[in-house]
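User: My instructor asked us to take a sequence, write out its structure as tokens, and then describe one feature of it. I'm not sure where to start. Here is the sequence I was given:
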Amino acid sequence: MAQIHQFIDRNRSDWRRLEALLHQAERDVQALSDEEWDALGRLYRQVTSDLALAQRDFPTHQVTRYLNDLVARAHTFIYGERTFRTLGLRRFFTHTYPEVYRRLWPYTLSAFLAFLVPAIIAFFVVLRNPEAILVVMGPGARDLMETVEEGKLWTDIQPEVRSFASMFILTHNIQVMFLTFAGGVTAGLLTVYVLMVNGLDLGAVFGLLHAHGMSGQLAEFVIAHGVIELSVIFLAGGVGLYVGDGLLRPGLQSRRDVLVHRARMGVMAILGSIPLLIVAGLIEGFISPSQAPWWVKAAVGVGSGILLYGYWWRAGRET
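Assistant: Let's start with the prediction itself. The structure tokens for your sequence are:
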């Protein structure tokens, strides 16, 4: 116990100095002098070292959560504010955005599970009893049932309206992304709700189609754009859970400060993801409904997934 108190007493002044600089910079970044920018970088490296020691020696103590949030806050500001204001968009996309993704990975994985588990449950429930889709998706799903019973899919997009469809799809995907992100201010409850509802809907639709021997047709339509689209939605969900977790477990900071700091990192993730949703929307509007062979669509989906996750996990790492 004495060891943790000695650790805090020895380093508290650096932590408070870093907090003060961040508070000043967040109010007016232009007010920072060159000396203060240097001090910010030096203190960021020092506190990162303190965090590593705390994670090794005091992994469950609240000071470790405090340092983790302080480092995340400093990292986001240094590589975020300076990226857009000083270093330009290139560094943001080559370093900051993929680094933010890696930091949010545990929350993104949780968002994926919040989507996947309801999807699996809905799939098997509707597969066993197709009428159950009316319970999962509401009475409005009856038109969907009738369409499927006639052996038709609703995914055919005529060539002359694909440009409009692509824009509509893009707008919808961005709305879902922002909704799952904004759900963080409800302690993550709205985020979880949106993920679960979308998981239930997708699972129920696949269950209905599989019961009529048509799930392969929908899979062929989804595979080309689905990897990018769903991955970005899960990341947005992870951001919402990250913000919500900060509100539930603020550590040594006020909930207001935690909300501001974590939302700042979330904005970085969302801004970096918008180009990806544009790509997914174009694929969904033009390639997914095309007459291209299924293996071409699968190659687009798998190839885009490999490139995306390779970028998220490898870009910006020190070699």
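For the description part of your assignment, you could build on this observation: Residues 2-87 form one domain. Try explaining in your own words what that tells you about the chain.
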